[in-house]
Every structure is written in structure tokens, then in C-alpha cells.
Amino acid sequence: MDLDAVRTFLAVVDSGRFREAAAELAVTQQAVSKRVAALEKELGVRLLARTARGAEVTIDGQAFLPHARALLHAEERAMASVRPGRRALRVDVIGRRLATAGLLRGFHLAHPEIELDVVTLFDADAAVAALGAGTIDASFRAVTMPGRRLPEGIEALPVLDEPLQLLTGPGHALAGARSVPLARLAGHRIWIPGIVGGTEWAAYYADLAARFGLTIEVTGPDFGPEALFDTIADSPELATFVGEGTRLVWPQGHDLRRVAVHGPTPVYPHSLLWAADNPHPSLRTLRDHLAASPEAPGSPAAAVREADIWSPAWARPRDRRPAL
């Protein structure tokens, strides 16, 4: 249905005259008549009747009137949904319990006026493809994996070096420690089920294991964190890695322990990715917020910690933060 014709019909109804509707729409009176006639032909009914007093709405016109207004209202909402600055900022956080979701929650608290649409995509390839297609505005990822480069037009800003912690059950040999040297984990079984080859986290853990002689087991399907916690809680041998900023909930009887790792501390290098030609005005606000965080790599507070951290050689260097 021609929405210009619907708009013209409503202009005639609201003004009461074809001539006044033409002036309002900045078209000729003949154009108004043609549009209304075309709409009547499409609907197969007469909507308006010309009288000496102007245009009167017929019975069929009265039946169509509320639907005509709804059509134009739907058009307005559809246009607003994609207009820059009017639609929600769509951000991929990988997982809703991870530190990246916490970063976005902090942004929301600081800028409650900005509407957010939070999504979780599988891996960096899917996220970069979505950024290029414009289906998301930003993504938190570790970049770039060995042998790969970000596509032209995709920018990255390091936003958080998240320390890894060892998660153990109460019977594990390291359960009573407040912190352990990374080298001491050699020989212990670290279980991270469901790691998928070709993902950024698979590349990260492969480099970590090779660099420090760790035994990281990836056997078995990933049944989710609850199943992992059940196994870790009952095992005196198995442990796993979790991010310091990851929000975990487990049954009280599990008595799981989070143990800090040092000398050096392995950190997961989170960056914010976005398409350089993305026009959403809130994207700049998000980047500014994250860059100003005391946790951001390159900040004075982060510089104190960087002497005792490890991340893969392929992770984006801290001194190459792109200009905002």
C-alpha cells in the first residue's frame, strides 16, 4: 500500500478540504485527488465524498481511518528504530556472567539514558562478521589470534586485562592457598571442557599451556558451569581457570575456592571491537567510558600491574591503542 496515498487521505480528513491538504503536503490539488483516487481503487471502496462544505468521510472511510493512522504510526516507529541515536546500542559481551558484561553494566550505570541491546555471539569470527554486516555495534574480544589480522575497517581498543584465578574443590592440594605461583601449577590437572579449536580462547589456553608447561585438559562436552562445578567440587585432582571478574554461583555445599595466581599473573586481554564507519553516536560514548576506566590497559593504575602479567604475544600490544 502506498503510504503517501494514506498520508494524503489523512491530510484531507484532518483539514476537511482537498485544497488545504494540498497546501499542507506541498503538492498540487490535482496530485491530492489522484492519490486519494488511487487508494480508493486499491481498496475497492469510496473513502471521501466531495460536498459544498468540503470533503466528508464515507462509512468505508470511517472504517479505514483508524487503520490508516496505525499504518503511519508503524512507519514512524520503523524509521525511528534504525535512525542513528534512536535505536539501542547493540553490544556482544560473549557471556552474561563474564567480566565484559560487568564492563557494560558499569557503562549502563554511568549512562542510564543510553538504551542497550546485549547479545552473546560464539567466537571472534562471528563477532567480526556481525560488525561488518552492521548487525551489532560493538563486541568484546581477544584480538588477534595467531596468523590472523582484523579486517580492514574493524577497529580495536584494549579495555581490560582480566587476571585468571584457579578454581578448586575443598579437597584439592591447592585449596588452602590464598595465591599460588603460576609455575607451581605444572603437573596439576586443569580441566576446561568444550574448548573449540579455532576460537580466540582456544588459542589463548594453548599458548598459556605451552609457555608454562601446564596440563590443560579439554576432553568431554561442555554441559555448562553447573556440571563443571559439580565435578571440580568432588575432585581432589581437577581444577579449572576462571576470570577474576566472572560472576559465579554454586551450591553452598560445594565449598569451591578461588585462588589467585601470580609470578606472573595470566591475564585474558579483552578489547572492544567496532566498525570504523558505524555512525551510532553512543558508540563513541562507550569507547570514551572504557578508555577512561582505571582498569584499562595503559592507564596509570594498570601500568603498575603490567610488570607481573602474562598474555599471549599475539594479543594487541598495550602501546598501540587506537586514537578515539
UniProtKB/TrEMBL annotation:
Q: Which residues cross the membrane?
A: none
Q: Which SUPFAM superfamilies match?
A: Periplasmic binding protein-like II (SSF53850), Winged helix' DNA-binding domain (SSF46785)
Q: Which domain of life is it from?
A: Bacteria
What span is annotated as the signal peptide, if there is one? none
The record's InterPro entries line, in alphabetical order, gives: LysR_HTH_N (IPR000847), LysR_subst-bd (IPR005119), WH-like_DNA-bd_sf (IPR036388), WH_DNA-bd_sf (IPR036390)
Tell me which residues make up the HTH lysR-type domain.
Answer: 1-58
What keywords are annotated for this sequence in UniProt?
Answer: DNA-binding, Transcription, Transcription regulation
Give the record's family classification. Answer: Belongs to the LysR transcriptional regulatory family.
Recorded protein name is: LysR family transcriptional regulator
Task: Give the source species.
Answer: Streptomyces flavochromogenes
